[in-house]
């Protein structure tokens, strides 16, 4: 076993974790009861007024069971796969024979669409059968294959059924016969990364080393000269424009990349795959590259919400400290990708800085992507919105101020569904006789430590309340370490065991309080994370946020909405000394803590008609303002929104 | 004579005005000695490293004197016409036989390229001879015709030579035979307005009423249903997308338009043409529309620099109060168009508000378009620049932080040349026995008042100094009114005649001090405009400028540059009470007044590596900052620039 693998934490499988109550159980329920059925209807084009998906129809046509043309994006298949993956996670936690029957039927359909050589992509089967594998840069064939594989592994793990896994293996085998370093094979790799991490999942579940080798090959080859995208472009009689190299993360071999570049979702998926391959092959050089890329993202290129990708052009990273709030991209899928990357980094290096970012993205830029009713979505997650500008200044046309029922390019909705349905995977990890608690979620985990069954139950109203009660229920007395993450944002954390406070200062290890003792059934830990309202400043190099402050409480970033504070939020200034009042409002936005304070509002008297005026006397009038959690914005009447508020 | 025409001021012809010294004489000299020769070289593709213009070659090919293909934009001809117009104005003021010879040769070439029916457009002659007049929306045929006409009128007025005027008339006659309301004619109008104002010039110089009728027809027909652009699109087998209507100002008949919409240059040219037609036809309804459009622009859609057009998408107006400083467009040509519009409004309503805007645009967004050496140009005139963002965040890719030697779409450089070469036209107007002074420019004007020759000489270092001495030199004692504009920005103006101060409060009329008396040769007026440094605030609805202030002195808007103030200009805050020190630096930027003051800079101590931090202690350290005139930015080392500075 390689070094990295030896030190690696193991996430606890989804089936062993129950999210029982509190904040995330609402999401689990919503995904199961609303989002998954809603998205199924959309994939079948049965929701009036919503852009036609045509995704299921494409499979029917490809399977020869229906007449018609392919429709949708070239990667339309992936919507079905991601939906199936979400279904799998949901079934793992909440068995549901009816849903499983639908899934089985979809899987049968997918299997029927697969060609005899294992090839499976409805766009190429229907529309351009002679163009397979001729444009890896744009065609998303390997991307869709990756999502098929992820769905197959998830469905197998949830149900034990192998049919989709067999489909995935046949396709993976086919891909393996086409691509690789061996003579006669194409030295290609995907335009949109995704298959790398998927193949490692397939390797882990099947034990087939060729899948790991293929994944490693895709990663090793990426960015090597001569560039495959140039070769294949020439073969098509097309041109490769070197300017696009960083968009695809092929500007350098991956081990030489030190800054996060290009399309943010692709980048995050690639980095996740790099960690996976590193873990399985013991490749320290990949880990080192991932650490550099991680540092670059999280210290220079990440919004306070965990959003990544500053520019609508290429849905891409731009450069250090360029984090515009209003022309922002911060795609929901990119925040999801960041969660994937963070979770993987955390397993190889149990340092809270990874969990902090994972939590930051989850509570903010990820769930801001979905309406509270589970049926409407943001693709772009802005930090400042003036609705009229989104409508009328096309520079901001990509920024919507109301969530949409679906998209022509619908990558985000099923991505949200699969992440939120699998949230149980992100809470705990285990290594030898250490049980890590990364996230505070009202939940119960059943696992084995040194061959002994252990149950651990968290009870908490987190993130609204910082009190977490953890019940330890080993089958018998057991010596092990419970590692509790003390979030980076928390300035004061208290831990008591069975009512007795313990001093954690001596047991902190990379942000985790490591409580090692002989645990008895019924031992009870109480963790108190102080949840003061925090004024957050951005690094002074973030020019957009100079003179501004963001409000955070626990892991939740707050914002102002026009609904609560009137129009023109940019004339509100927050005095240096202000007292924040936190209130839980159970009927507001499905129940959230709001933050109120006395601020000031610029007052110009009656300004009149002039556009510019000299020697204006600005006075400030006191105004009570109300912050709501950022993720819950745009769930009421449309209006302005602002995260970074001017500071006086 | 119609009502409007009766009250209209008459600008004094260029030949009667000499700009003798001071600020604008440097520009006049630069245009003549550097810019016109430089642009001639560019038009002939003789400047290494500059995008090939091919504009002269296109005429050679069209004339059948050279083999080759058309190259450049579909409106490439207009670059030559605008250059010729600039040459004409320069010749009117500074006779130059060598330059006139070059111009004559170009005119001969243009005449040889003209077809026997009068048609003249090198793109269509060379490339698509069978597609003439089939796509008025995009083809710029009428736009180029307009520029040909303007050049022809200017050259005739400067030299008395009729050759180009004849060419223009033949083409105008041809156009008149094709377009109009009469049966059998196409009911078209230009995609890019320009010919409207040009035809009125042609009418004025030739007395041919059909040119006025044609101009009026283009204006009357614009926006009427059924929309011609839809008709011609159908005829081409193409589609008309109604979303584009406002881009072309055809969303409504022009008299019903109340807000400035679409492509800002097109809009400004259209509105200018509307005033011209209104004046000549006595059409009050057009004037009323122009007034509404003027008010909309100047009270809601104009940058403090006089720049118009907030968005790079469509180079267009967006909506009221949307004036982003960093994603801005504010094309140089649009500011020039605003000068045209302002100048025309001023003649029909001698109110300083028109002259104030004309002056605002001239001293700021117009001349910011050209480097101090006359050879490099801005297309876009931003109010805030972070160079790295222009390079790496494609949302700002249209914003350059160094002026360019030329452009593929090179409308701005020759437009600057023709405006600056004709500046003399904008200084004075006359009506009956009133002589208006709109702009304070060191200059001499020779005109006739009630049949008597009068010479008036201004001596001034304006805009650096507010003292203007005006010498009145009538051939004999003469009773007339001298109307001196007291700029809107000026809080304290003093006027003395022959050393004796006069109280102007009783003689103010729409911002002009009207001094009526029996003027004797040698009478001497001294006007003192107080030139304090002003802190300007934007209307609170301009969200981008909330909490910020711009610095203005006289008509000149100031900015901070990185060169003088270090990087990250957004962490500079200007205390409410600060003392400004004005210094004339004769060796800086060709001689400018700079403004210095004690400001404060946010100081975070050593921030470290974190991207976000809680409870940061921001201190402010005093810093001396230096403002330079906005128009002169980007003439030294590249760096950040900012007009709207944070206020403490």
Automatic annotation (TrEMBL), chains A, B:
Non-reducing end beta-L-arabinofuranosidase-like GH127 C-terminal domain location: 533-646
Residues covered by the Non-reducing end beta-L-arabinofuranosidase-like GH127 middle domain: 435-531
Residues in Non-reducing end beta-L-arabinofuranosidase-like GH127 catalytic domain copies: 16-424
Source species, domain of life: Bacteria
Sequence intervals crossing the membrane: none
A Pfam family it matches: Beta-AFase-like_GH127_cat
InterPro entries in UniProt: 6-hairpin_glycosidase_sf, 6hp_glycosidase-like_sf, Beta-AFase-like, Beta-AFase-like_GH127_C, Beta-AFase-like_GH127_cat, Beta-AFase-like_GH127_middle
Protein name: Glycoside hydrolase family 127 protein
UniProt organism field: Thermoanaerobacter mathranii subsp. mathranii (strain DSM 11426 / CCUG 53645 / CIP 108742 / A3)
Highest classification ranks of the organism: Bacteria, Bacillati, Bacillota, Clostridia, Thermoanaerobacterales
């Amino acid at each position: 076993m390689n070094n990295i693998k030896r030190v690696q934490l193991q996430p606890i499988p989804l089936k062993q974790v129950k999210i029982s109550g509190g904040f995330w159980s609402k999401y689990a329920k919503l995904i199961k009861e609303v989002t998954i059925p809603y998205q199924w209807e959309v994939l079948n084009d049965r929701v009036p007024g919503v852009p036609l998906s045509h995704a299921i129809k494409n499979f029917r046509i490809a399977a020869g069971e229906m007449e018609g043309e392919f429709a949708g994006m070239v990667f339309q298949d992936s919507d079905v796969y991601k939906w199936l993956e979400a279904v799998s996670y949901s079934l793992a936690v909440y068995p549901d024979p009816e849903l499983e029957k639908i899934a089985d039927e979809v899987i049968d359909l997918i299997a029927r669409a697969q060609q005899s050589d294992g090839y499976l992509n409805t766009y190429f089967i229907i529309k351009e059968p002679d163009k397979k594998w001729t444009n890896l840069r744009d065609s998303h064939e390997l991307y869709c294959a990756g999502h098929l594989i992820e769905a197959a592994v998830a469905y197998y793990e949830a149900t034990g059924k192998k049919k989709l896994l067999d489909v995935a293996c046949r396709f993976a085998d086919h891909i393996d016969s086409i691509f690789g370093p061996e003579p006669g094979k194409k030295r290609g790799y995907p335009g949109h990364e995704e298959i790398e991490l998927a193949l490692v999942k397939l390797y882990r579940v099947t034990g087939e080393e060729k899948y790991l080798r293929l994944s490693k090959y895709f990663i090793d080859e990426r960015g090597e000269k001569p560039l495959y995208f140039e070769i294949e472009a020439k073969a098509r009689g097309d041109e490769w424009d070197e300017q696009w190299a960083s968009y695809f993360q092929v500007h350098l071999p991956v081990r030489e990349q030190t800054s996060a570049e290009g399309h943010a979702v692709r980048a995050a998926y690639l980095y996740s795959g790099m960690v996976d391959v590193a873990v399985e092959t013991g490749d320290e050089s990949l880990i080192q590259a991932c650490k550099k890329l991680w540092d670059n993202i999280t210290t220079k290129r990440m919004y306070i919400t965990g959003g990544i990708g500053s520019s609508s052009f290429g849905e891409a990273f731009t450069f250090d400290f360029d984090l515009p709030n209003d022309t922002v991209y911060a795609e929901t899928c990119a925040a999801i990708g960041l969660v994937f990357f963070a979770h993987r980094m955390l397993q190889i290096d149990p340092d809270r800085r990874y969990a902090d970012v994972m939590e930051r993205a989850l509570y903010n830029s990820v769930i801001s992507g979905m309406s509270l009713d589970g049926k409407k979505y943001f693709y772009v997650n802005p930090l400042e919105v003036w609705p009229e500008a989104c409508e009328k200044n096309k520079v901001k046309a990509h920024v919507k101020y109301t969530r949409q029922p679906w998209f022509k390019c619908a990558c985000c909705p099923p991505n949200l569904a699969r992440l939120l349905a699998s949230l149980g995977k992100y809470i705990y990890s285990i290594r030898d006789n250490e049980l890590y608690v990364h996230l505070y979620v009202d939940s119960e985990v059943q696992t084995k430590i040194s061959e002994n069954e252990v149950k651990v139950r968290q009870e908490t109203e987190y993130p609204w309340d910082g009190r977490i009660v953890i019940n330890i229920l080993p089958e018998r007395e057991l010596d092990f370490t419970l590692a509790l993450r003390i979030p980076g944002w928390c300035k004061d954390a208290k831990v008591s065991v069975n009512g007795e406070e313990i001093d954690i200062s001596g047991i902190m290890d990379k942000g985790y309080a490591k409580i090692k003792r002989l645990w008895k059934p019924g031992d009870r830990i109480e963790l108190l994370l102080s949840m003061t309202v925090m004024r957050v400043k951005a690094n002074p190099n973030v020019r957009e946020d100079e003179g501004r402050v963001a409000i955070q409480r626990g892991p939740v970033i707050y914002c102002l909405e026009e609904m609560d504070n009137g129009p023109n939020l940019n004339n509100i200034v927050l005095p240096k000394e202000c007292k924040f009042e936190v209130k839980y409002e159970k009927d507001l936005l499905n129940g959230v803590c709001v933050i109120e304070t006395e601020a000031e509002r610029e007052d110009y008297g009656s300004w009149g008609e002039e556009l510019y005026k000299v020697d204006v006397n600005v006075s400030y009038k006191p105004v009570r303002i109300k912050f709501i959690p950022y993720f819950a914005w745009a769930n009421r009447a449309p209006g302005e929104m602002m995260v970074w508020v001017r500071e006086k």
